[in-house]
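FORM 7B: Structural annotation worksheet

SECTION A. Query
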Amino acid sequence: MMNTKSGEISPEQKPHIPREIWVMVTAAFIIALGYGLIAPLLPQFVVSFDVSMAAAGLVVSIFAASRLLFAPMSGSLVDRVGSRRVYLIGLMTVAVTTGLVSIAQSYWHIVALRALAGIGSTMFTVSAMGLIVRMSPPSIRGKCSATYATAFLLGNVAGPVLGASLSFLGFRWPFFIYGVGVALAAFVVWWQMPRVNHKQANKDKLPPMRLQEAWGDTAYRAVLTSNFAHSWINMGVRVSVLPLFAVSVFHNGAAASGFALAVFATGNAAVLQFSGRWADTYGRRPMILIGLVGTGLFVGLMGLADTIPTLLVVSAFAGAASGIINPAQTAAIGDVVGNKRSGGQVLSTFQMAGDFGQILGPIVVGGLADYFGFAKAFAVCAGVAAMGVVAWLCGRETLQERRAIVRRIPLRKKKRL
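SECTION B. Predicted structure
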C-alpha cells in the first residue's frame, strides 16, 4: 500500500522477505561456507601433483571460463524448464564434481572436474537470480538482494576459519565435505522451496524477455557496464593482484594481504545491512553511482599504500563501496525483467559481463604492474569504474516509486504558484 499524500510506501506497510527467499539465503550460506573451506586449499592441492604455479592457475581460470562459456545455455535452460529445476541441477552438479576432486588421481582429473563444476555454478547462479527476481516484492527487492549477498559473504568469511580448524584432515577431505555441504543445500531447497504448481507453470510458459528487448533499455545497458567494472575491480583485481602487491611492498606481505581481504569483507558486510534498504528508498541509480565512485577511488589508491594501516583503511572503504553496488545492481536487473517475465538469457548476459570483467581484470592489471608498477596499474581501476559511472549517468532509474516521486515534484510546485 502507498501513502496517498506522498506516494511512498511507508515502512510498516512494506512486505516482509518471503519464506522462499530465506530458503535460498540458507542454501547460499551453506554453499559459500564450503567454497571458503576449499578456496585456499585448491592451489596447494594442485601443486602437490608436481605441476607449475601456472598450471595451478589454470585450474582456477578454467572454472571461471566454463562459467562464462556456458552462461548463455544456462539462461536458455531457465527459460525452458524453470528456475527451480535448473537451480537444483546446478547445485547437484557442483556437489558431485567437487566431491570427486577428493579422489582425483591426476592433475587433469582436477581440471576436468573444475570445468564441469563451473557449468553447474553458472546454472545455479543464473537460476538463483531468476528466483530472486520473481519472488522478491518490488518494493523490497534491494533488501532481498542484500540479504542473499550477506549470506554468501558470511559463508566466505567463516569458511576459511572452518578450514583452518580442519587442516589436520589434509587436502582431500575438505573437498568431500564441500560436496556433501552443497548436496545438503540442494536438499534444503528441494524440501522447503514449493514445487511449481499449475498456475505457476502457466506463468513459466509466457514468452520470456528477449535479450534484444532488454538491450533497448538504457538501465540494462548501464547495469551490464557497471557489473563488468565491479567484477573487474572487486572480484578480479582485488583478489588476484592485491596479494602480489602486498608481498612486493611489505615485509610480512602474506599477512598484510590476508588482513586487507578480511577488512574488505568486514566493510562490505557492514554496509550490506543498510544498502539494500537504501536502494529501495533512494533508487538503484544513485547507489550504484556512489558505489562505483567509491570503488574506483579507493581501489585506485591501493597501489599508493606504503604502510599496512593505510592499506587496511583503503580496503575497508573499498569494501563498503562494493557493498553499496551489489544490492542495487541486482535490484535494477530485477526491475528490468519484472516479476511476470522469464529472463534467463537477460540474467545470464548480466552474469557473463561480470565473469568477463573478473577474468580480464587480473590479466590486464597484472601485466601493467609488471611494466609500469602497481601504482599505475591500480589507477586503471578508476578508469574502469568511470566507464560504469558514465553508463549510469545515461541510464534510467528503475525504481518505480522513485520515478513517481520525481515526476510529481514539478506538479507540486505548480500548485504552490
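SECTION C. Observations
The chain has two domains: 14-205, 207-417. The longest helix spans residues 253-282.

SECTION D. Sign-off
Analyst initials: ____
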